[in-house]
Design goal:
The complex is a heterodimer of chains A (about 600) and B (about 425). Chain A is built from nine helices and 39 strands. By secondary structure, chain A is mainly beta. Chain A starts with 8 loop residues before the first helix and ends in a 5-residue tail after the last strand. Chain B is flat. Chain B is an all-alpha fold. In chain B, helix 4 runs antiparallel to helix 5 and helix 8 packs antiparallel against helix 9. Chain B is about 70% helix and about 0% strand. Classes of the chains: A mainly beta (about 600), B mainly alpha (about 425). Chains A and B meet through strand 14, helix 6 and helix 8 of A and helix 2, helix 4, helix 9, helix 11 and helix 12 of B.
């Protein structure tokens, strides 16, 4: 990994290898000065992100069809820009002829369907469906006039990042501390760990690393829970489900529909300790997290009680969510109920899907946002700094406005760079929407995305979010079956873009046209011993007025997806940041005083002057 | 087309503006037609039921029936569609009913529920307000409206509705609970504690109240009391006395509706009624394995072992992959001393559902009890891998080792079990028997 200090964003981009295949049309991103009416523009198709997720549905309402996919933004080739991984499904076949994984998914079917699809697609001049998840290299180019040209090239085969089975989600982290980000794929069946060879290729080390959990996993997170400098791995497991044991379920009218999760047994999640030798040890029981589990769908890691040790929060589908507080001795204690984050304030367990932690009220601690089922509304849990939370879903406006939606991927993101974290959720139902079915919609689960702007605290100290969906642009008018979402600055222009993974559909790459109108400051936080992204490191940006904005390096959160591990902080109209304080995952604190704004700077542990 | 119709009807009925003056019914002939949604994928019984009501409505329209009669016919179709969870389709029927019979409280009340369930909270409040103008002291309407205000982040307005409800009918638990929630939202923890304590003293089964009560105690700094209530936290909901919604829920025919009623009876401990509902459901949907499984379970709980066995066997005959029925069969057979048969059923259950902890554990235990400790060890190991919480598997594993005379290893396993599950006394007791 090349450590870079104080390089402007543009020069980082020039390090990229963009002289490769440019068969896909290129997308020019508007320069900062141009005023766009839409805050986000979908550039997936024009940037070469040719991909269609297939969920394998055959009209049998197989429960697993509607849970994926996830997606990732990760810089796998260390060229300074974010590449993309998209997970893929497969067809479920009733015939037992195919190769089946331990959960009964027909693994050869996806290849067959791709083969069958290829001539037709080719003749139509459209995308050829390919089996398995896909890795797209970002060949971003900064033009002379400051505009950026995004172009993605499918490098799956060359990279040897070959998924097998029915893909669910993905997470990213450098588990072997070699400075190259590795990839963990969650599947309906054995998961896969791919070690980055630091030369553009990966090696499947699933079995030898002992990270090949055979359960149905959805979200996972790399985090160093024991502060030994090596990333451990939490694997969120969902339900026990197989094609053969699929239970028919019905709507109240008797019409066949997808089941609710309580029809199937939840599976325990796993905590894998990094042995520092390329292998993991399952410490699920020893760490105490085996004591309680539910059907896990989302996970977010953060230091929720402010003791300097990383904790994690698990969103369960229809059962109480879990807040695992690190006991600093290799064990965790679930404080979900007492902390006020397990249930709604009514006392009801909701269908937790996506989750993110972030300091939306700028008081220095990590607040939690969880997406839920239609009729329930999303939840905002506000931290008191010591790990006790108050549910403010209703008061913030985020609860009622989301009641008509089933939320999945989400994040705290400051999309307008005004210094306040906003939220975006991608949505899609899990049971038939009658109004759509009546219109003979072939997949009547689709819903629009939601965008909420945080205007800052009012006099009572409460933020009342504004529904900004209508300003989001045409992409926000699309109704799709949204699932995963990855958040990061894909064009390195200083604002957060969003990659949306749709079930049985095409991804959307929502390029932010708004954020770069304000000032910002960006960081890559790398370790001294290990030249990797120091996930969980916290950055305090002291602004002109003396106030401090705290943000965290993370790739987890959202739903089945991996985010940009860099930290991007909106400064609003501030033209400088007087000090930058970094709290490293090992507890050590450093301070920088001369960090330029409106660009990314790599801060290396131990290098503060 | 529906939405256009809805707008027209909204205009006709002057909903929600009708309130201040004495409302008058619209001329039925001015109402645009409303079509029936596609029913084709519904249960036959449901199709028949809704179709019959719709045809009755059409007949009344053709015969120029009086407005109140027509209103009830529209409302009946709306009720069935709402019971079938087709809220969009129900709405125009209710709007017509409301326009034709503006003095009837039921129609705006049901519309309030339609909008509440569609997350259109402002419209829901308007409809509930309309209903309250027609029946000012209706407790159910007041409680539901209070709940909607809470969801909107308006605890003061919510509290006013709950207070009105309590004035109309003192000690209504749902209104007390709402007041507690409103106080909690306002961080008035003392009052929240008072209200939630009243809820639990009025209805100790209302276990859902323990959680917000715990949060209120936490807000007062009383962590010990908070934790005590968290330990009692449950999911038994608190709803207002609501005859209109009870009536609506009982209207729909069809297998799923019978299943829902059966589950409610089962939860209430009324196994006989539950079995009756499940049996009706099975007659309507004989290939629904989950429904037949519930019938068998209810029969078993009634003590009708033979009937239960027959239904479980029929379930696996019709749905060979339905693992729960093999499990239940195994349990029944084992209870009746047919251990070998039970082993076969448990083995089939885990063949179809490898992560089925309950079935695998029962299989392991029966294998051990029938003198096959080696085979039992494998199953116990699998259980421990699937569910690390399963203390029974750890204990059973040690006991299988004892049977195999591997005493040292058994002692080690029991010691590990004592450390992992200090609350389980069987580990210490077995260790004592084995001798250290």
């Amino acid at each position: 990994m090349r450590a870079r200090l104080a390089l402007p964003a543009a020069s980082l981009l020039l390090l990229g290898g963009w002289g490769c295949d440019r068969s896909a049309p290129a997308a020019s991103v508007r320069p900062v000065t141009e005023v766009a009416s839409d805050w986000f523009m979908d550039r997936a198709e024009t940037s070469g992100l040719t991909f269609t997720h297939i969920n394998g549905m055959e009209g049998k309402f197989y429960y697993a069809e509607i849970i994926a996919p996830g997606t990732a933004m990760l810089d796998y080739d260390n060229d300074g820009d974010l590449d993309i991984y998209l997970t893929q499904g497969a067809r479920f076949s009733e015939t037992a002829a195919g190769t089946r994984d331990s959960l009964g998914a027909d693994l050869s079917a996806v290849a067959r369907s791709a083969k069958a699809e290829a001539p037709r697609a080719k003749a139509a001049g459209s995308e050829v469906l390919r089996s398995g998840g896909r890795l797209f290299r970002n060949d971003l180019r900064v033009n002379g006039d400051g505009t950026r040209t995004l172009q993605f090239v499918d490098v799956t085969d060359a990279s040897r990042l070959v998924s097998r089975g029915y893909g669910m989600g993905v997470t990213a982290g450098d588990f072997n501390n070699d400075g190259c980000v590795d990839v963990y794929l969650t599947n309906l069946g054995p998961n896969q760990l791919f070690r980055n060879n630091c030369n553009g290729t990966f090696m499947d080390v699933s079995r030898q690393s002992r990270a090949d959990d055979p359960s149905w996993s959805v979200s996972a997170a790399f985090f160093d829970y024991d502060r030994d400098g090596w990333l451990d791995l939490f694997v969120g497991n969902y339900l026990s489900w197989r094609v053969e044991s699929n239970t028919p379920c019905f709507a109240p009218s008797g019409r066949p529909d997808y089941c609710s999760p309580d029809v199937y047994q939840p599976q325990p999640s796993r905590l894998l300790h990094n042995n520092r030798d390329g292998t993991f040890t399952d410490v699920t029981a020893a760490s105490g997290i085996a004591r309680e589990f539910g059907p896990a769908l989302g996970v977010s890691t953060a230091d929720f009680n402010g003791d300097g040790w990383i904790d994690f929060y698990v969103a369960n589908d229809g059962q109480p969510n879990l807040l695992w507080i690190n006991q600093r001795d290799g064990t965790f204690k679930n404080t979900g109920l007492l902390s006020g984050t397990a249930l709604s304030s009514h006392g009801r367990a909701k269908a937790g899907m996506g989750v993110d932690a972030g300091d939306f009220d700028n008081d220095g601690d990590e607040d939690i946002f969880v997406t839920n089922l239609t009729g329930e509304g999303n939840d905002l849990y506000v931290n008191d700094g010591a790990g006790l939370f108050e549910e403010r879903s209703a008061r913030s406006g985020l609860g009622a406005a989301s009641r008509g939606y089933t939320g999945f991927g989400t994040a705290w993101l400051d999309f307008d760079n005004d210094g306040w974290l906003d939220t975006l959720t991608v949505n899609g139902a899990v049971q038939t929407i009658e109004a759509l079915r009546r219109e003979n919609d072939p997949f009547p689960l689709h819903q629009r995305k939601l965008l909420f702007r945080n205007p800052g605290r009012d006099q009572s100290g409460t933020a009342r979010f504004e529904d900004a969906t209508a300003r989001g642009g045409a992409a926000f008018e699309l109704s799709e079956v949204g699932r995963g979402a990855a958040f990061g600055d894909i064009d390195n222009d200083g604002d957060v873009d969003v990659l949306v993974a749709n079930n049985n559909g095409k991804p959307r790459l929502l390029i932010n046209e708004l954020g770069s109108r304000n000032h910002w400051i960006g960081f890559r936080l790398v370790g001294s011993q290990a030249p990797r992204d120091m996930l969980a490191a916290r950055v305090g940006v002291v602004r002109d007025d003396g106030s401090t904005l705290w943000r965290r390096a993370r790739s987890d959160g959202s739903y089945a997806s991996a985010n940009d591990p860099r930290v991007l902080v909106g400064l609003g109209q501030s033209t400088s940041a007087s000090r930058i304080r970094v709290v490293w995952p090992n507890g050590r604190t450093e301070e920088w005083t001369t960090v330029p704004i409106d660009r990314y700077t790599t801060l290396k542990e131990g290098d503060a002057k | 087309m529906l939405s256009a119709t809805v707008l027209l009807i909204s205009g006709c009925s002057s909903e929600p503006k009708t309130s201040m003056s004495q409302p008058t019914a619209v001329d039925p002939s001015t109402l645009p037609a409303v079509t029936l949604p596609d029913l084709s994928q519904m249960d036959r019984a449901v199709q028949q039921q809704i179709g019959d009501q719709y045809r009755a409505l059409q007949s009344l329209i053709e015969n120029r029936a009086a407005a109140p009669e027509l209103a009830r016919a529209y409302g009946n179709v709306g009720n069935l569609l709402m019971a079938a969870n087709d809220l969009e389709a129900a709405e125009p029927y209710y709007l017509r009913a409301q326009a034709l019979e503006p003095g009837e409280m039921r129609w705006p009340y049901y519309l309030g529920h339609v909008y509440m369930n569609r997350a259109e909270l402002t419209k829901s409040i308007a409809s509930f307000e309309h209903a309250l103008r027609l029946r000012p002291d209706d407790v159910a309407t007041l409680v539901w409206m209070g709940n909607v205000y809470l969801d909107q982040g308006e605890p003061e307005l919510a509290e006013a509705q709950f207070t009105r409800a309590l004035t109309a009918q003192p000690r209504v638990v749902a209104a007390l609970f709402g007041r507690g929630r409103a106080a909690l939202a306002k961080r008035d923890y003392s009052r929240a504690v008072d209200y939630f304590e009243q809820v639990l003293s009025s209805d100790p089964r209302a276990s859902i109240a323990h959680y917000p009560l715990a949060l209120a105690y936490r807000g007062l700094g009383d962590t010990a009391r908070a934790e005590a209530h968290l330990r009692q936290q449950g999911m038994v909901e608190i709803g207002p006395p609501d005859p209109l919604m009870v009536e609506l829920r009982g209207m729909l025919e069809g297998a799923v509706a019978e299943e829902s009623r059966g589950v409610r009876a089962l939860d209430g401990g009324d196994f006989k009624t539950a079995a009756e509902h499940f049996r009706k459901g099975v007659e309507l949907a004989p290939d629904n394995p989950a429904l037949r499984h519930k019938l068998a379970t209810a029969l078993s709980l009634l003590g009708d072992t033979q009937g239960a066995l027959e239904q479980f066997q029929e379930t696996v005959r019709r749905s060979p992959g339905f693992a729960q029925s093999y499990y239940s069969l195994g349990v029944l057979l084992a209870t009746n001393g047919r251990q070998q048969d039970a082993i076969e059923r448990f083995a089939t259950a885990v063949k179809y559902e490898p992560n089925y902890v309950g079935a695998r554990l029962r299989l392991a235990e029966l294998l051990r009890q029938t003198g096959r400790p080696d085979a039992a060890l494998t199953q116990y190991e699998q259980v421990m891998t699937i569910d690390p919480r399963a203390a029974e598997a750890q204990f059973g594993y040690a006991m299988a080792l004892v049977q195999l005379k591997k005493y040292d290893e058994a002692r080690r396993r029991l010691s590990e079990g004592m450390a992992s599950y200090p609350e389980r006394r069987e580990f210490a007791e077995a260790l004592a028997r084995l001798g250290r």
